[in-house]
């Protein structure tokens, strides 16, 4: 029986609860209701004292989790949507992220953030927040794009002593399926070559990995172009070595992301390649992100707002033609 991306997240939390009595889950309606996306469904029945409903206050949720982590617990906090985490911004970046630096006491919390857009979700339920949290020292930011990574990276995140922002993409929840959770179990901070190629490199992460692979398949059928796709897997730490090695093979770079274009992960990738690998490039590096507007509600507008296989192909054609 196939397992989905959301199954992987639920089962990883279940295993974490089984393996470590210090792990507990905390979030709005995650108990009997099972969470907004049912990522905790049935877990409170097994662990009524460790799967806890939270008040509708993201600030209070992270504050409690920070305090519990300081005392030795390992909380996994569910934000209903990544967008809502801005209410807890102070607790995440000024308390959790800095605590070890200030005191020598780690804060091992995992904040699950349902990220990215889906048709009809609109501006308050579709944002990609990974750039904001990666900006601050002390955080680890992961962006799993496969079922196997959704499972293994969540378990790795629980074991880390640093606060981890776990960006799970809502569009992948029930669409992405696999036979099992078996994978290469790469560590957090190591990128993966999802598709090998020799003519251009696409560096991306999360749901955009799948759009990039579709675009690469289209260009191969169109003209025999072989596009290499690099899945960053985590955006902080960012695996510059794998990116540079890919650009050295292809000579061309497209940095692709669903987040807004100003600054961000794609800008960081281009900046690092230009600074340390300018001599490797045969063409100016390119970036492709969502439009610089709030995320629209209408499904057709949303489809135009974010990168698609067609718009990725267009960008790559321009890159290949240089």
Automatic annotation (TrEMBL):
Its EC number is 1.2.4.-. It holds the Pfam family Transket_pyr. Coiled coil: none annotated. One of its GO terms (molecular function) is oxidoreductase activity. The keyword Oxidoreductase applies. Residues 3-175 form the Transketolase-like pyrimidine-binding domain. Keywords: Oxidoreductase, Thiamine pyrophosphate. The keyword Oxidoreductase applies. Its cofactor is thiamine diphosphate. InterPro entries: THDP-binding, Transketo_C/PFOR_II, Transketolase-like_Pyr-bd, Transketolase_C. Signal peptide: none annotated. This is Alpha-ketoacid dehydrogenase subunit beta. It comes from Rubritalea spongiae. The lineage of its organism: Bacteria, Pseudomonadati, Verrucomicrobiota, Verrucomicrobiia, Verrucomicrobiales.
């Amino acid at each position: 029986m196939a397992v989905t991306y959301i199954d992987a997240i639920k089962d990883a939390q279940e295993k974490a609860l089984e393996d470590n009595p210090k792990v507990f889950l905390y979030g709005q309606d995650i108990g009997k209701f099972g969470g907004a996306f049912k990522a905790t469904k049935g877990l409170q029945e097994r662990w009524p004292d460790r799967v806890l409903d939270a008040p509708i206050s993201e600030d209070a949720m992270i504050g409690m989790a920070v305090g519990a982590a300081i005392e030795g617990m390992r909380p996994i906090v569910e934000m209903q949507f990544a967008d809502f985490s801005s209410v807890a911004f102070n607790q995440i970046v000024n308390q959790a992220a800095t605590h070890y630096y200030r005191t020598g006491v780690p804060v091992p919390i995992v904040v699950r953030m349902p990220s990215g857009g889906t048709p009809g979700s609109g501006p308050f339920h579709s944002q990609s927040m990974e750039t904001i949290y990666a900006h601050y020292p002390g955080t680890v930011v992961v962006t799993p794009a496969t079922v196997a990574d959704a499972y293994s990276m969540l378990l790795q995140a629980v074991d880390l002593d640093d606060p981890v922002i776990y960006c799970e993409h809502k569009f992948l929840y029930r669409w992405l399926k696999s036979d099992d959770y078996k994978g290469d179990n790469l560590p957090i901070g190591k990128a993966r070559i999802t598709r090998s190629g020799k003519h251009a490199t696409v560096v991306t992460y999360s749901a955009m990995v799948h759009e990039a692979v579709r675009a690469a398949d289209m260009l191969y059928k169109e003209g025999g172009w072989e596009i290499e796709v690099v899945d960053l897997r985590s955006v902080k730490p960012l695996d510059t070595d794998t990116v540079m090695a890919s650009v050295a093979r292809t000579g061309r770079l497209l940095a692709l992301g669903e987040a807004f274009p100003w600054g961000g992960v794609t800008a960081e990738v281009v900046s690092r390649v230009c600074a340390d690998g300018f001599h490797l490039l045969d063409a100016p590096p390119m970036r492709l992100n969502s439009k610089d507007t709030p995320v629209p509600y209408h499904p057709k507008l949303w489809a135009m707002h974010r990168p698609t296989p067609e718009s990725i192909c267009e960008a790559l054609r321009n890159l290949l033609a240089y």
